[in-house]
Amino acid sequence: MPDLAGLLSGLLLRVAKHWIAGETFEDAVMRAQQSSTHNIRSIINLLGEEITAREEASAAAAEYLEILKKIDRRRIQGCISVKPTQVGLSIDESLFKDNLGKILSSAKFLGNFVWVDMEGSPFTAQTVDAYLDFRKKFDNVGLAIQAYLKRSEEDVSRIVDRGGIIRLCKGGYDESPEIVYKRRKEIDENYSKLMRIMLERSKGFAIATHDEKLIEEAARLSSVHHTDFEFQMLMGIRDKKKLELVNRGFRVTEYIPFGKSWWAYSMRRITEHKSNIFLLARSLISG
Ligand code: FDA
């Protein structure tokens, strides 16, 4: 009797591998090395979120400390990105701050940089406040801000005014229309507005989108404002555009997730773009 659960999990992992490097750090290293031959830097992310056990959150933080050492030892052109609930925010704020503080100290010692991902709205306020606190002590930390959130204009202003570094993305969670813009046009307009605030007032930031119109708007405006920024895109999405931007002289970084907890991340990638449902169905049918 075949192990059906194992078979299904194997098939889903095969689809998920469009967006994740694999289950091990070595898989992420291989992808990072490939990208670096094209002058694309990497942001390495250990998959995992909404962790509910203290030991697991501390283990994830410890794993990040190892990842930072390995990035340094192996001279990988890259930094890391951490999810707040992966290191304790869904359990206890002080555990989160303790774990993130250790990661930031180690990254600073090694001359590396840490991005903090932004998760669902129950964690937004705590994440922004913690970021602003950490920013007083660490200059090697940036924060993702979601353009679909109505509160983001205020957050962007607060962060930029305190010299913080933002990664502007559209936002990937299912949220209520009371707190987010739902229509694509509104989200894109807010993205463009926040991007302009950063171009005018920030010292450095990242444009994290695959949206052709917004990317080209940023490219156009950059020749007027000369603010330091980079494009960031996810592994497995718009690879040709990454190369085109590098060839045009822009800095491009690729977000490379790896690890065994690939389910939630991969589901967000599959469901945010209709064509991926066909990809999933095709892969399941062809076995
Ligand atoms: P949009 O969804 O409008 O897509 C624009 C185009 O990109 C599409 O037409 C298609 O060509 C391509 N595309 C986009 N997604 C695709 C997919 N899954 N499969 C195939 N093609 C696709 N979110 C969050 O909430 N917190 C965070 O911390 C981060 N961090 C982050 C880092 C980086 C580097 C990036 C690029 C993105 C994030 N995100 C994120 C995810 C982000 O919020 C958003 O969900 C996705 O980037 C998709 O939105 P786009 O901006 O690409 O636009």
Q: How would you explain this protein's 3D organization?
A:
The protein is an alpha/beta fold and 287 residues long. It folds into 2 domains: 1-20 and 262-287, no CATH class; 26-261, TIM Barrel (Alpha-Beta Barrel). 52% of the residues lie in helices and 15% in strands. The chain is built from 11 helices and 8 strands. The chain has helices at 4-16, 25-36, 54-73, 93-109, 124-137, 152-161, 184-201, 212-225, 239-247, 263-271, 275-286, and strands at 41-46, 78-82, 114-116, 141-146, 165-169, 204-208, 228-234, 252-258. The longest helix has 20 residues, at 54-73. It is globular. The protein binds dihydroflavine-adenine dinucleotide. Dihydroflavine-adenine dinucleotide binds at residues 117-118, 144, 146, 167, 169-173, 208-211, 232-234, 237-238, 255, 269, 272-273, 276.
Query: Which regions are unreliable across 5 or more consecutive residues at pLDDT < 50?
Result: none
CATH topology of the largest domain: TIM Barrel
Gyration radius, in Å: 19 Å
User: Which CATH-level-2 architecture of the largest domain?
Assistant: Alpha-Beta Barrel
Heteromolecules bound: dihydroflavine-adenine dinucleotide
SS field, number of helical segments: 11
Helix fraction? 40-55%
Distance from N terminus to C terminus (CA atoms, Å) equals 17 Å
Question: Could you say how many structural domains there are in total?
Answer: 2
